[in-house]
C-alpha cells in the first residue's frame, strides 16, 4: 500500500480556498516534502473496536523520521486510541481489537510473532497525567534501562544524560535521591519524558502531555519537543490546536461520526497534511470549522 | 443605621435589596449523628482500656506470689518461656505457609487474573476466612497429621505436633493476607502500571518493582494482621499442637502455646483467685504485650520503607 493512501479520505471539493488561519509555520522553512519521505511508522487501514463498538475507522497515516506529527480533533474522535495502537498499549484494554496494519520500519507490529514488550522498548510513551513512579528521581530514570536489560556502563551518566535531554538536570541535580513526588507537575512530566528517553527509544508517543500543566510548564515541554526532534520521531495527541500549530511538522485531523442507528461515535481521519498547509489552507470544510473554532 | 432584617445597609449607607439569610441554624440531627459516630469510635478504645484494666489486678496478685524469675523461666509450674517458644514456632510455620501463598494469590488476583476469574476467586478466598477455627483444628488433628504428614509425606510426627498446627494455622491466615494485600495492590493507580509497561517492562517486572513497592504499606499491614491472628489463634493449637509445655526446636513434637495454655487453664479445674488461675492473666498480659510490640515495630518499619504515591 502506498503511503499516499493517507490522502484517500481527505480529499475535498476543489476550489475551496479558506482564509489563512494562523501564521506560517516553520515547517515551511524546513522545506518539508508533501509526504514523509522516510516514514518510521505507518498505519494502513487501521480499525479499532472495543467489543462491538467501532472506535476508529480505516486510518491511514505515515510518520516521518525526526518529525513531530500532531493528532488533533474533538473529544471522542479516536486520536488517543490511534496513538495507543502505535505501541500496542491497546493490548492492555480488555475487549480491544485492532484490524489493519501498523508498520514499524516496514514490519507489521500486529503480526502474530511480534512481542509487544519489544515494540514498547522502541516506541516509548508519555501520558496525559504525569505518572512518575513513587521512587526517587534517580530510580525513576534507572528503571527503564534496568528492566529492559540495557547494557549500561555507568548508570549515573545515563541518568544525567536523560535528565539533561529533558531539560531537567539543573533543577534536580542536587536532589536525585529524593522522591519524584516532590517535583512540580511540569517537572514530573519532564521527568517522565527523561524516563522515556533513558531507554533510547526510536519513537516517542505523547498523549496530551501538557493538558495537566500550566502555560509556563507547557512552554518548557514544547521547547523540549523541538530539541528532541533531532534525535527522535515524536507523535503527539493534543486538544490544543495552537499547540499543534506551534510544535508539529505535520498534523492529522480526526473527527467523530455518529452511527445512524446506534448513535455510537466512530473516529475517522479527515485530513493529514503539513501543519503549515493545514492551518493556512485546510482542504476539508470540517477541518476548517474545527481549527477556526467553530466547533469542538 | 437600621437593624431591619429585610434590608441591607451597604457600605455607603444605602439600603439595598432584602438580605440573603445567612443566620446560623441549629441542626439537631447533625449533632445527634456526630455523638453516635464519636461514641462508636470510642467503644473500641474503651474496650481495649477495659481489657488492660481487667488484666492488671490478677496479674499484680500473681506476681505477688510468684517471683518474676519463676515466670520468665524455662522450667517449673509457672514457667512461660516454653509457651512463648511454642507460640513462636507455630507462628513462624504459619507465616512460612501464609505469606508466600497469600501474596501469590493477591498478585495473581490483582495483576494477572481476568475480570471473570477474579469475580469468582476473590469471594472463594474470602470464604476460607469464614470457616470456624475449631473445624481447622479438627482438620489438623484428624487429617493433616495422620494422612498428609504421616502417610503421604512419611514424617515421623507425634499425635499432637507444632508442624501440623502451624501448617493449618497458615492456611487459615491465607485469606486475611491475600484479601488485604489484593486490596492494597488494586489501589495502586493504573497509570503507574501503564507507565512501566510503556517502557518495555513485562508484567512480572511491573508487579514486583512498581506495584508491589507502591502497595508495601498495605501489604505489611496485611501480614501484621495475619501474624497477630496466628499468635492469638487458640482452637487450632489447643486441638492439634498439644497440651504439654515443651521447650524444643523440633516441630514434629507437640508443644503448648500461650493461647493453648490459657484455654486449658480457663477450663475450670483451677479455683478462681488461686495462683494457678491467676497465671492465665499473666500469660494473657504477655500475649497482649507481644502482639502490641509486633504491631508497633511493623508500623515503624513500614513508615521507613514505604513509597508514597
Lay out the secondary structure.
The complex is a heterodimer of chains A (296) and B (309).
Chain A: H1 26-30, E1 39-50, E2 53-64, E3 68-72, H2 79-85, E4 96-104, E5 107-108, H3 116-122, E6 123-126, H4 137-147, H5 155-165, H6 169-172, H7 185-198, E7 203-207, H8 215-228, E8 233-237, H9 241-247, E9 250-258, E10 265-274, H10 275-280, H11 285-291
Parallel strand pairs in A: 2-10, 3-8, 3-9, 6-7, 7-8
Antiparallel strand pairs in A: 1-2, 1-4, 4-5, 9-10
Helix pairs in contact in A: 4-7, 5-7, 7-8
Chain B: H1 28-65, H2 68-71, H3 81-112, H4 115-127, H5 133-152, H6 162-186, H7 190-198, H8 203-214, H9 216-232, H10 235-240, H11 258-265, H12 275-305
How does this structure look, described?
The complex is a heterodimer of chains A (296) and B (309). Chain A is α/β, with parallel strands linked by helices. Chain A has one domain: P-loop containing nucleotide triphosphate hydrolases (Rossmann fold, 3-Layer(aba) Sandwich), CATH 3.40.50.300. Chain A has 11 helices and 10 strands. Chain A has helices at residues 26-30, 79-85, 116-122, 137-147, 155-165, 169-172, 185-198, 215-228, 241-247, 275-280, 285-291, and strands spanning 39-50, 53-64, 68-72, 96-104, 107-108, 123-126, 203-207, 233-237, 250-258, 265-274. In chain A, a hairpin with a 6-residue loop joins strand 9 and strand 10. The two termini of chain A are 32 Å apart. Residues 1-25 of chain A have low confidence and may be disordered. Chain B has 309 residues and is an all-alpha fold. Chain B has a domain at 80-272: MetI-like fold (Orthogonal Bundle). Chain B is 70% helix and 0% strand. Chain B has 12 helices and no strands. Chain B has helices at residues 28-65, 68-71, 81-112, 115-127, 133-152, 162-186, 190-198, 203-214, 216-232, 235-240, 258-265, 275-305. Chain B is globular. The termini of chain B are far apart. The interface between A and B is medium-sized, with 27 and 22 residues.
Amino acid at each position: 500500500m502506498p503511503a499516499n493512501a493517507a490522502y484517500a479520505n481527505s480529499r475535498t471539493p476543489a476550489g475551496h480556498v479558506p482564509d489563512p488561519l494562523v501564521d506560517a509555520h516553520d515547517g515551511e522553512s524546513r522545506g518539508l516534502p508533501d509526504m514523509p519521505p522516510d516514514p518510521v511508522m505507518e498505519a494502513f487501514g487501521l480499525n479499532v473496536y472495543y467489543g462491538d463498538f467501532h472506535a476508529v475507522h480505516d486510518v491511514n497515516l505515515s510518520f516521518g523520521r525526526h518529525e513531530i506529527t500532531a493528532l488533533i480533533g474533538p473529544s471522542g474522535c479516536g486520536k488517543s486510541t490511534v496513538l495507543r495502537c502505535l505501541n500496542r498499549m491497546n493490548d492492555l484494554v480488555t475487549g480491544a481489537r485492532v484490524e489493519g496494519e501498523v508498520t514499524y520500519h516496514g514490519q507489521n507490529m500486529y503480526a502474530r510473532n511480534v512481542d509487544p514488550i519489544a515494540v514498547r522498548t522502541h516506541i516509548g510513551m508519555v501520558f496525559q497525567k504525569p505518572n512518575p513512579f513513587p521512587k526517587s528521581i534517580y530510580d525513576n530514570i534507572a528503571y527503564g534501562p534496568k528492566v529492559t536489560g540495557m547494557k549500561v556502563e555507568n548508570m549515573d551518566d545515563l541518568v544525567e544524560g536523560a535528565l539533561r535531554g529533558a531539560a531537567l538536570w539543573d533543577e534536580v541535580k542536587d536532589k536525585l535521591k529524593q522522591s519524584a513526588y516532590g517535583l512540580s507537575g511540569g517537572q514530573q512530566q519532564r521527568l517522565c519524558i527523561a524516563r522515556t528517553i533513558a531507554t533510547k527509544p526510536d519513537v516517542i508517543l505523547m498523549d496530551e502531555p501538557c493538558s495537566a500543566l500550566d502555560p509556563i510548564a507547557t512552554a518548557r515541554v514544547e521547547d523540549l519537543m523541538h530539541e528532541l526532534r533531532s534525535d527522535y520521531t515524536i507523535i503527539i495527541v493534543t486538544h490544543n490546536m495552537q499547540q499543534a500549530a506551534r510544535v508539529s511538522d505535520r498534523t492529522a485531523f480526526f473527527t467523530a461520526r455518529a452511527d445512524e442507528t446506534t448513535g455510537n461515535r466512530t473516529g475517522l481521519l479527515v485530513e493529514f497534511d503539513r501543519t503549515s498547509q493545514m492551518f493556512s489552507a485546510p482542504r476539508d470544510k470540517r477541518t476548517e470549522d474545527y481549527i477556526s473554532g467553530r466547533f469542538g | 443605621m437600621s437593624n431591619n432584617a429585610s434590608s441591607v445597609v451597604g457600605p455607603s449607607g444605602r439600603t439595598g435589596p432584602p438580605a440573603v439569610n445567612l443566620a446560623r441554624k441549629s441542626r439537631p440531627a447533625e449533632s445527634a449523628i456526630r455523638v453516635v459516630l464519636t461514641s462508636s469510635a470510642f467503644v473500641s478504645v474503651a474496650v481495649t482500656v477495659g481489657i488492660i484494666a481487667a488484666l492488671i489486678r490478677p496479674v499484680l496478685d500473681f506476681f505477688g506470689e510468684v517471683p518474676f524469675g519463676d515466670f520468665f523461666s524455662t522450667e517449673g509450674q509457672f514457667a512461660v518461656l516454653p509457651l512463648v517458644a511454642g507460640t513462636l514456632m507455630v507462628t513462624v510455620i504459619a507465616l512460612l505457609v501464609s505469606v508466600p501463598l497469600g501474596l501469590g494469590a493477591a498478585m495473581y488476583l490483582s495483576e494477572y487474573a481476568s475480570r471473570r476469574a477474579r469475580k469468582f476467586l476473590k469471594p472463594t478466598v474470602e470464604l476460607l476466612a469464614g470457616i470456624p477455627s475449631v473445624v481447622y483444628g479438627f482438620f489438623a488433628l484428624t487429617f493433616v497429621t495422620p494422612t498428609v504428614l504421616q502417610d503421604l509425606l512419611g514424617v515421623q510426627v507425634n499425635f499432637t505436633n507444632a508442624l501440623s498446627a502451624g501448617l493449618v494455622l497458615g492456611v487459615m491466615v491465607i485469606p486475611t493476607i491475600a484479601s488485604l494485600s489484593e486490596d492494597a495492590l488494586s489501589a495502586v493507580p493504573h497509570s503507574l502500571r501503564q507507565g512501566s509497561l510503556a517502557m518495555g517492562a513485562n508484567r512480572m517486572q511491573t508487579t514486583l518493582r512498581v506495584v508491589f513497592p507502591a502497595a508495601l504499606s498495605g501489604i505489611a499491614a496485611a501480614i501484621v494482621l495475619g501474624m497477630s491472628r496466628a499468635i492469638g489463634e487458640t482452637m487450632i493449637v489447643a486441638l492439634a499442637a498439644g497440651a504439654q509445655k515443651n521447650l524444643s526446636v523440633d516441630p514434629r513434637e507437640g508443644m503448648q502455646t500461650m493461647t493453648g495454655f490459657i484455654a486449658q487453664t480457663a477450663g475450670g479445674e483451677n479455683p478462681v483467685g488461686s495462683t494457678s488461675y491467676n497465671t492465665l492473666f499473666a500469660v494473657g498480659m504477655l500475649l497482649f504485650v507481644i502482639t502490641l510490640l509486633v504491631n508497633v515495630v511493623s508500623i515503624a518499619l513500614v513508615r521507613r520503607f514505604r513509597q508514597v504515591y
